[in-house]
Specification:
Layout lengths: L2 E4 L1 E4 L2 E8 L13 H25 L3 H14 L2 H12 L4 H17 L4 H21 L13 E5 L4 H5 L6 E6 L7 H9 L3 E3 L11 E5 L4 E4 L3 H24 L4 E3 L2 E9 L2 H9 L5 E5 L13 H12 L6 E4 L34 H14 L5 E5 L5 H20 L7 E7 L2 H5 L1 H5 L4 E4 L1 H9 L17 H17 L2 E4 L7 H9 L4 E5 L3 H10 L4 H11 L3 H8 L7
Helix pairs in contact: 1-2, 1-3, 1-5, 2-5, 2-7, 3-4, 4-5, 8-18, 10-11, 11-12, 17-18, 17-19, 19-20
Bound molecules: phosphoenolpyruvate and magnesium ion (MG).
The site of phosphoenolpyruvate (PEP) has 10 residues, from β11 and α15.
Length: 561
Amino acid sequence: MADEFHGVGASPGTATGPVVTLTQDEVTLDQVDDPVAAITASGSAVSAQLSALSTAAREGGRDEAADVLNAQSLIAEDEMIVDAVSGHLDGGLDLEAAFAQATSDLESMLASIPDPYLAARAADVGEVMLAIKRDLAGAEASSADITTPSILIAHELTAAETAGLNPELVLGFATEVGGATSHVAIIARSLGVPAVVGVADLVASGATTAALDGSTGEFYANPSQDVLDEFADRLTKQSALQTRLDKVRGKKVGLGDAAVAVAANIASTDDVERGVAEESDGVGLFRTEFLFLDTDTPPTEDEQFEAYRLAASSWSDTVVIRTFDIGGDKPAEYLDLPPEENPFLGQRGVRIYDQFPDLIDGQLRAALRAAAHGPVAVMVPMVATLDEFRSVKARVDAVKASLQADGIECGNIELGVMVEVPSVALNAKAFAEEVDFFSIGTNDLTQYTMAADRLLSSLSDLHDPLHPAVLELCRLTAEAGQAKGRSVSVCGLAAADPLAAVIFASIGITKLSVSAGSVNLIKATLAAQTPSIADAVHEVLATASSAAEVRETLMPMLIEP
Ligand code: PEP
Ligand code: MG
């Protein structure tokens, strides 16, 4: 009898096949002679395992997984773990109780920190503490005996367990614990393994075979022939879609007569390869923070130059480098900025450039030098006022003059502004007089327009870029840009949503920048529409009062590629 379960789609794709259940034995800690030494030794062992997994993930081009594993490897060695357990041992608890109490203390301490980056580490601490506990207890690593291609099910998978899965044998997996943005989801996506998480009562389902869909969150235990036929149908549709996506690869597309470039968002040198493979129309957002974060010292100008030159010389279309957006929720230790109560409203992006002139000038020098190797543009994040933009423009002019005076090869760059703070959209006419281009960051623009923290899943309904208020700001920007002949692009996550992409193209946006994997879906979607959709979009935007209304009215008109 087939049982239907619903979880959260964590990694797209479908899978059907036999089920293997991951066994995770409970472990209990006995007293040891020298607990501090034992915990330190286990912490080092776990740290080394995580570090090796991180290196393997990095070499496999799975940067997000590598970052998660690297962060956990650093936590495993942190003295706070020994200190927390020792404190409870000194207070009279036995090792098992002291370890449990220390784990819960550290998790709640991190979860309560207003800094979202540190708060997200609470999940890491729980996973790391469990791994150290298992090592201390001498437990076997949790294991699943997979010898033939199968679907894995488990109560919970840690980042390390997920990263250790062999995508050739694991057709897909489902877990009881986890959400769409959990580590397990991030790593599953980077491995390309379909996954569903947050499925209640999964392990007790008694599934011996299963069918799962990582886009919809469906999980069928012991699926009937009807369900299997339906999944076979989905697979056929997926491969037909792939064929259609391959047809637009490398082609220029548009909506009706209006050309719309579809560029790639990149955030590492590995992403360059992915964007090139999908033949994106250049890069619309090069997030440069990877060079500045998770390191003890800022990157040198030459290191940056190498990274920017590689990107610039890999495309014939423009590569848009974003100047560093650090501070606030993305702190860099070496800057020693004071912690803030509201990091998203604090010292972030352009707001810290005057405090760190060498850092921003070094980045601009590297970008100008890279511009000698291919078309490069630069854009500035977190701008709220025209004066902030002017001050960066003055820096670009000064840096360029100094490079030229020293006879150092450099090129011309266009300088644009990110539209993330509503004040820029509302003042777009004035900005259009001075900027070379606009690029709308819908992630932050939505957060600041709706006053909804982009990291809070409980506010995800409010954080909706299709809300008419957000779309009106996009429209105002597009209108002001068009009037002055400035290009206006969207580089936030919304650009990768097919309906949103069509809406943006309809209101005069001329470039969309999305992760490499979405480039050809968005191209194919734009190419599939009839020009009349733009009229419908304008009509709906003139009257709609909610994001739901925008979606419900326009979705039925969208032609799937
Ligand atoms: C945005 O805010 O939409 C954006 C593209 O920048 P980030 O997501 O890096 O803040
Ligand atoms: Mg942003």
